Amino acid sequence: MAKCCLAVPAMPIGRLVSVSVAAQIIASIFFVPSAYAKHSEKTGTRAHSRPAIASRAPVRHAATPLYAKSVEGIEVKSAVHHSPSGRSGRDIGGGLMTRQTATTALSTVTRDFVATQSPSTSAYEVLRLVPGVNVATSDPYNIQSGNIIVRGLSGDEIGFMMEGAPLNNVGTYVTLPSQYPDGDSIEKETLRPTSVDLTAPMIGAAGGLTSVDLRDPADRRGGMLSASFGSHNMFRQFLRLDSGKIGQSGVKFFLGYSHILGDNWRGPAAPFRRDHVDFKLVKDWGAVGKSRLVVSYTDFNMYLLSTPTLAQYRSTGGNYNFSSSYANQNPLYYKLRGQSARTVIVSAPTDLSLQHGVSLSITPYYYGAWGGFAYGATLPNSGRAYFGNQLSSLDLSSLNKGTGTTTTVNVPTVFDIQHPGLNTLVSWKSGINTVKAGYWFDYTRQTYQNSFGSVYSDGSPVAKLNNSDQVARLKDGTIYRSTDWLAQTYTNSVYLGDQIKAFNNRFLAEAGIKAVWIHRPGQNFLPGPQSDVGQNAFQVTPQVGLRYEFNQHHQIYLSGNTAFRVPTANSLFNSYNGTTGTLLIAGNNKQKNEYSISEEIGYRYSGPILSGSVSFFNYNFTNRQISTAAIINGGSVSTFINAGGETGRGVDIQLGTRPWHNLRPYVSAEYIRVTTDNNLLNGSDYLPTKGKIAPRAPKYSAGLGLSYDDHSLFGNITAKYMDTQYSTFMNDEAIPAHTNLDMSIGYRFHSYAFLKEPELRLNIQNLAGATYLSGSNSVTGNAKAVRGVYGTTIAGSAPTYLQGAGRAFIGTVTAGF
Questions:
Q1: Are 773 and 800 a contacting pair, CB within 8 Å?
Q2: Residues contacting residue 648 through CB under 8 Å, at least 6 positions apart
Q3: Which of 297, 363, 439, 484 has its CA 20 to 30 A from that of 240?
Q4: In terms of Cα–Cα distance, which of 625, 619, 614 is closest to 649?
Q5: Taking Cα atoms as reference points, which of 754, 731, 755, 742 lies closest to residue 707?
């Protein structure tokens, strides 16, 4: 039968907006047809029969059907205009929601929201308004890494992927959003809280999975150019070039480049720099499938911001930072607190449709990182110090010796991380069943070593990463180090799952199981009882999910998931005090693996104007690994606390609308209660922490967004509220509640000559100029002295914090060509 375009009558909009939201939802259950309309592949929402936008005047859609019967021979087409920056002005809640059909909670942020944000927005910041997310930033340009917390679980528990490639550091599970793709290149970002897709190449992601998808190259040749100017001497340029379709080859690609300069917003005006390249090539094989090649490269250099204790923060009115003076050879001088690194991420997925319902997906990937981070310290001029656990004589003749009894030195920790892998998935669809089977292999090789280098008389290091001869050595010429180890991690995994779709795809059931083998040999090159150490682990993680759609408006879902991870690589190795030889952290290859079980039940509503969801969740951990920071020889080193059992339960809510008089409001909220289920071991005693609220788990949080776009004037205002959150297991110190406001406003002009829709945009970060602590950098057992379970007095240890960025203005001019 020949297809034709036909407007199918739908429920009158006037009736829908004339009744209350509650009445609208109830009525739709009984009166909306059960057939399904086609979805717009671009936006993930119901296809709208809208004409293409041909002018700047607002387009009226009163007579446009929002849903259509899925009758044979009828095709509903959608024509949505996108600006050169990728914005459509149509997505739900200003781009903070899309229609979802999964068996678990999902939050997807689209280009509509990303394109209105600060040009230096990070993968963390994109998600800051969705339910249960707390983003702890420390600078307005997202050069410093910060942290992300989802449902009370820190960023090291969140898996990050880009186009099928895992981005987490397998040794520490840490994520570094400043090294991920530019916001200019991100098409959408999806968060799957407290669950991970069976086929994802990921472990250690009990807090959930975040997937970043880059925009596809344009079909026509062109590009985009933008320039930004902002507070603290910020200057950023961005250029994107689209090849368009290259002849009849089925190939197209884009290349994006950004360069940003600026100064730290507090303390000394220490400069930062970041250069970044994003590349994506798509090869369309027609009915056979599609291949992609994605490359993301970052080169950055910066001076670190301090992470103050609560007393330091309060005593300085929020201006605490590393010292601007090198007087008396101060090791806290800011030029001795730097970081420099280069990263490259490569993903090359290919998806093929074979015969008899069989499809094949192959994704090779690679992640590489080289660089280091430095701090200032002192060495005794006597030349006596501990090399591992051995008291040794040092040769300090190549250093610029200090006056007095000590010499100030620059101490960088240099790392080299090589992380290739391959994920292969075969699917077979037969009737209502789809069987999935796959194999995942991942290899990570990482080295960490430090040295003690010379400092000029003005306090600046002779070489930031000590790539010179002016370093402290032993008498036999060996470079003196307090960290020097190599760890390799081999991960092999097989997974098998089945998916059933029935009742015209209204019912979805899926179940799967993943088996993971991990082998991690390590070598510690410092003197001591360790040399060759290692970890081995095997774990099976099942999952199950159900979803039922009553009609195109209403659906319910429920799921159960499991996750695990082995302790971090650096937990294998001893750490010693270089002055006294005291064992600071004991390496342990017998630590127990973390394991978690999570359950969730939820409801979704997708209406002509309003969309929303509510999700009730519960999770339980054994051997919960809490990330924190320890001070080793004057430097901050990532480490973990085994907190034993932990239980979290709560509810997430979000609501958003489609355009209404060019407005698209959005609201999200979460209530959560996370408790520590065991007393925490401290030396030979236990802290009485059983039943206490877990650190980094605010009881309440809420997000609000209001977007406006009439295809000329556009903008949004966002607010995020975070309740009080504890930073110790004893609940004796906490971050006060705070609310952060951001705003953007812009204007899009008519195309002129070769310039397509030039636009001006102003972003204001921290609109109210609030001074606040955004998150915990390190958590401790107790901030104040406390009596242990066995009666001993356990001394307190002060947590450190990330300080929220001050107010910043960023102006951007953008044009397509």
A1: no
A2: 151, 152, 153, 617, 618, 619, 620, 672, 673, 674, 675, 694, 697
A3: 363
A4: 619
A5: 742
User: By the 8 A CB rule, do 682 and 794 touch?
Assistant: yes
pTM: 0.87
Residue 171: the pLDDT is: 81
Contact present, 490 and 419 (Cβ < 8 Å): no
Residue 795 is encoded by which pair of tokens?
């001394």
* Amino acid, single-letter form, for residue 470: Q
Number of domains forming the structure of the chain: 2
Residue 406 lies in a domain: yes
Task: Give backbone dihedrals phi and psi of 248, rounded to 5 degrees, phi first.
Answer: -105, 20
Tens digit of pLDDT for each residue in 266-282? 999 999 999 999 999 99
Average pLDDT, the chain: 88
Cα-based angle 44, 50, 53 (whole degrees, multiple of 5): 105
Sign of CA dihedral 224, 229, 231, 234: positive
Give the CATH number of the domain where residue 603 resides. Answer: 2.40.170.20
Question: Cα–Cα distances in Å, from 361 out to 24, 338, 356, 430?
Answer: 42, 41, 16, 18
Question: Coil, strand, or helix at residue 571?
Answer: helix
66 burial type by CB count under 10 A (0-12 exposed, 13-18 middle, 19+ buried): buried
Say if 92 falls within a structural domain: no
Residue among 581, 307, 329, 565 nearest 456 (CA): 329
58 Cβ neighbours under 8 A, 6+ residues apart: 662, 710, 711
HSE-up (13 A, CA, CB side) for residue 504? 10
Residue with tokens 């309740």: 723
Residue that is last in its domain, among 81, 105, 125: 81
Amino acid code (one letter) for 740: N
Q: Which residue range(s) make up the domain with 514?
A: 222-644+651-816
Give 512-532 pLDDT, tens digit per residue.
999 999 999 999 999 888 888
Residues sharing a CB contact under 8 Å with residue 661, sequence separation 6 or more, in sequence order: none
Helix or strand (DSSP H, E) at 126? helix 123-126
Answer whether residue 471 is part of any domain.
Answer: yes
**Tokens standing for 470?**
């002016």
Percentages of the chain per state (helix, strand, coil), in multiples of 5:
5, 50, 40
Q: Are 394 and 480 in contact (CB under 8 A)?
A: yes
Domain-embedded: residue 88 = no
End-to-end CA distance of the chain: 41
User: What is the tens place of the pLDDT at every residue in 666-710?
Assistant: 999 999 999 999 999 888 899 999 999 999 999 999 999 999 999
Q: Which of 39, 61, 81 is the last residue of a domain?
A: 81
Whole-angstrom CA distances from 54 to 223, 390, 457 are 21, 77, 65
Q: Tell me the pLDDT tens digit for each residue of 79-92.
A: 678 888 888 889 99
230-240 CB burial, b ≥16 within 10 A, e <16: bbbebebebeb
